[in-house]
């Protein structure tokens, strides 16, 4: 038995070594808590990150206090953010969609009002379009500086596929129904939809409700008057969605397809589908997926008009903008203010345009010609400029706690799991604020 | 239990002794509680304390941002009024039952077969066990890619899959979940049966043969009864595993279409980390713990595990 | 003694072989295809021109880092389990106090605690301790949840140690410590191997704790890397499957070189 005495020693030695190694190794890569002379910037992980990375590098070249960029994959951004926001590991600066999405954080007194920053550097406010800047004002105080760009939802298409089916980008709802029939006949899925993500499905609701009832219906519902969901206009919109889905416009497998994993863009790029309704970031998504397609065959148009609708046909839905907000606990507010000033710098605006985003700074029009696709950026700019109303995405307008149920109701009505009344009562049950 | 007890590891000599009168010698050199303390404290801190906190949290309302508030039985009432929750319990049970029904016969068959001495057995069983090497995450990711309706196998094999919309309907989505779990876990259970089947004394088969029993009678009258313990062990593991399935649902169906595959373990995650209703999440979690404990206790009793303990522990 | 081959079971195992083999075939061929090749040619076709970009691509997205992190987590978890479980099992088997019986019950109960159940408070505890998004914060709970099964396995092994051996050592006046190191540990090597394999697999394949308790690239483990790959670029099946294949390699190596210990270990998990 004596010969075996070595075993436990070796085991114990190995364990001790392992633990020491682990603790020293883990000890210094301490997660997202900021280091001494550092602040963390948390953004939504997607194709735009390359611009943000570049910006942070630029900033760190000259600044004493360094910025550190963290990303969370898009599909999980909102939920991770809310999970960590009140923990010591919360970031110093973070990305959001304005409006309802930061209201709970403001209520919990987590955010730093930016009014002092603006007093010192009025450019932080004056260099942005007022309507955009105001969408991140809560209770009269500014909490966000616009970053990235405005993201209206548009109807994208594959020009080749449309040509083959003899289809023009639709101007009216009836055109769209026509196009759907023709595309079906030519053997492709008429409209790609990343139903697995749920929020892309929501875009169809947002536009149809706006076109038919105008923005007022949703505003009413959001402010607590849930009877709006039972109105005739609401039922009409639902009926039209039902009709579109039932004609097979989206094929059958849409709930197994996702936008976030490039599933639905791939369908359009590879010619398996004709249209896709998506936010303006679609251009950079396609660009990173298939550069040639984005440059040559990617077409776009505004959402079709609906005859007899009360909403202005030039209304838009989507993300008014994205914003950076600053946490109260941030230790380097001065450095952060410097960082935020870059959001209207010429290079930043040019870089954003370069990947198809449309910043809402006052200097944006100067650089439209330098965009990746000047035509695309100008088209988008035109839409935003003319739009009488820009409806923020429903799931961003509602408090975050409503998002899951909202998404589910939308998905289930779409795929037939809920009928009209079921959908209406699900929407009425959502917490409004 | 009249049959001789079979164990997976045949190497150990049967330890069966009766309690002997205590002597001084037997009491010398017994370790004190101090030997158990570090592990107990560690386990207490990272499992028992959180478990107690879950209980407390299930009586509170908390969104992770503000301060938690006591709300009494509010969460419990809400959770049991919630049709999605009730549905999720049934779905959990259904998936667990499907898992047991699919995996048990399959792994008994494979295990008994692999315990035999066919020539190609070694090579084949090496392939069989590949799923063991993959994490649940990897398995789900692979099958999600393979079964993608537009870019996966269903798009090519339309004669088999029709429109390929496997994830779009409840029945097929549940089928996929059950199939993927079976694919992943059958090899493991096969191993259990393989070990147990090898330990069956050949004499029993010889005796059965003399009695004129054919292959199938031998299987049902010798093999199966001899596998009793293995069947119990493997079923307990399947039940606990089935109730706590999480990655598979998250990656393959995300609880959809709608809430049609939202099983309780996934529902808890959604309530807590998507809707930020930590109180409701904790309540669902507790329901899971209670169910898992109840089922394991029942099965432990049935399998006679505690008896086994008492026969060997009587030192 | 067996006369003729068992046709029914043989046929069944062939079908099973197909079900195992098909995904493996798709996985291996897909990793050698370009993405457009995969989309155009379908998952079942052979690659038209072979590429290894998918593997290099996986490393570019940080899989090297994920590997090291996962390895670190696994080593630490196994370390903690080896440090805590043998003394615990020893005292469960040998001690006669009521307290240890209670401890054993506690760990038996622990078997029934699904790890999902405690994830909410775990998140709270870990983030209060400042360990959120830190691998230590993943290691500690993972190790804790590997304890019950390991304890069950190892105390099973230790129970089989003959009582005469203990008595003989007791006659010699051996202390509990000496018995532990000279008798118990050497005779439970089989059980120790089993708990190493078991806890290593649990740590290597762990998902929920890393999912909820980490966030940044620096502390990502493989399973989470796969999940993110799937959520972000899931449609890039060749790249995704290449990452899966890479994640298998270490376990595959263990399987090839220590197949018996692994298989016995896994049998042990179920069998005891």
TrEMBL record, chain C:
Key words of the record: Cell membrane, Membrane, Transmembrane, Transmembrane helix, Transport
Q: Where is the signal peptide?
A: none
Q: What is its main location?
A: membrane
State whether keyword Cell membrane applies. Answer: yes
Write down the membrane topology: Multi-pass membrane protein
Supply the SUPFAM superfamilies for this chain.
MetI-like (SSF161098)
Indicate whether Cell membrane appears among the record's keywords.
yes
Q: Where in this chain does the record put each ABC transmembrane type-1 domain? A: 67-258
The record's subcellular location field reads: Cell membrane
What Pfam family is a match for this entry?
BPD_transp_1
Q: Which CDD domains match?
A: TM_PBP2
Family to which the UniProt record says this protein belongs:
Belongs to the binding-protein-dependent transport system permease family.
Q: What is this protein called?
A: Carbohydrate ABC transporter permease
| Species per Swiss-Prot/TrEMBL record | Streptomyces synnematoformans
